[in-house]
Design brief:
The protein has helices spanning about 15-30, 55, 135-140, 155-160, 170-175, 185-195, 205-225; strands at about 35-40, 45-50, 60-70, 70-75, 80-85, 90-95, 105-110, 115-120, 130, 265-270, 275-280. The chain has about 290 residues and is of the alpha+beta class. It has two domains: about 15-145, Alpha-Beta Barrel (N-terminal domain of MutM-like DNA repair proteins); about 150-280, Helicase, Ruva Protein, domain 3 (Orthogonal Bundle), CATH 1.10.8.50. The chain has a five-stranded mixed β-sheet with strand order 2-9-5-4-3. Strand 7 (about 105-110) and strand 8 form a beta hairpin. Helix 6 crosses helix 7. Residues about 1-10 have low confidence and may be disordered. It binds zinc ion. Zinc ion binds next to loops.
């Protein structure tokens, strides 16, 4: 079901940096725009407010576009929020109205006095659009619980998340209910940067290791955001261009290639059902 990315690797993207890139670009392109019309091609990808989408969002102004976890949130006036879950293949693009509509484009939103439109396309339909109004918009209750944002996570809160956990650090980092937005790519990259073996029990990380790991997570995510994310299979920026962080990956997708630090070939393991890339020399177990 997943898109093949490189030989034998199947990865859902985007992760946090890709969603952040999309949110920033849409904020720059859409803030202040007023919704004029809406076309919904597939009603079953819509959730939340049961009224027709056009009835809820027409004539509303875009106050801003933000990100929470891996979701892109379009805040409209009147307390209405459109939340786009990108799933594995979801794409949000801002394109000229005259551009050919690609297959699997489920929602198109036009704005007053503008020649472009926002399109949501999701061939595999693991994503969706949530229209939240009133109290829902703030609680986001219908979206499921997600943990705190890693970029603003304090060291003490991170230590509390790790404490007494016997599961591997890799599987803990992938758990969206504990920390939001981290996926396979950036977990592997951050664990390599911190020199921590992905199978290390989370609760066994000592203070300095946990500190190094949280710093590595933030640095890895920030660098990826600066590079507009990683383009692997389906992810593109809203302007249709590719991200470039995939060229900076140190372990992810580099099976058998020499470690950039010690030259030993990169290995792989399966953890929590996910292919995990690591350097067997640079990343050590319990410290
Ligand atoms: Zn190495």
């Amino acid at each position: 079901m997943h898109a093949p990315i490189g030989p034998g690797i199947h990865e859902p993207v985007p992760e946090l940096p890709e969603a952040e890139t999309i949110a920033r670009q849409l904020h720059a392109g859409l803030a202040g725009a007023v919704v004029s019309s809406v076309r919904v091609q597939r009603a079953d990808i819509l959730h939340g407010d049961p009224r027709p989408l056009a009835a809820v969002i027409r004539r509303r102004r875009v106050e801003g576009v933000t990100r929470r976890a891996k979701r892109v949130q379009v805040q409209l006036d009147g307390g209405v929020m459109l939340v786009f879950r990108l799933g594995m293949s979801g794409r949000l693009t801002l394109v000229p109205r005259a551009a050919p509509v690609e297959p699997h484009t489920h929602v198109c939103i036009r704005f007053r006095a503008r020649g472009d439109e926002l399109r949501f396309r999701d061939p595999r339909r693991f994503g969706g659009v949530w229209c939240l109004s009133g109290r829902e918009a703030y609680a986001g209750r219908r979206m499921g619980e997600v943990g705190p944002e890693p970029l603003t996570l304090e060291q003490s809160a991170f230590a509390a998340i790790l404490k007494d956990r016997r599961r591997s650090i890799k599987s803990l980092l992938l758990d969206q209910t504990l920390i939001a937005g981290l996926g396979n790519i950036y977990c592997d990259e951050a664990l390599f940067a911190a020199g921590i073996h992905p199978l290390t029990p989370a609760g066994a990380l000592d203070g300095p290791s946990a500190q190094r790991l949280l710093r590595a997570i933030k640095r890895t995510l920030n660098r990826a955001i600066d590079a507009n994310g990683s383009t692997l299979s389906d992810y593109r920026r809203p302007d249709g261009l590719d991200g470039s962080y995939q060229f900076s990956h140190k372990v992810y997708g580099r099976l058998g290639e020499p470690c950039r630090r010690c030259r030993v070939p990169i290995e792989k393991l399966t953890i929590a059902g996910r292919t995990t890339h690591l350097c067997p020399v640079c990343q050590v177990g319990r410290r």
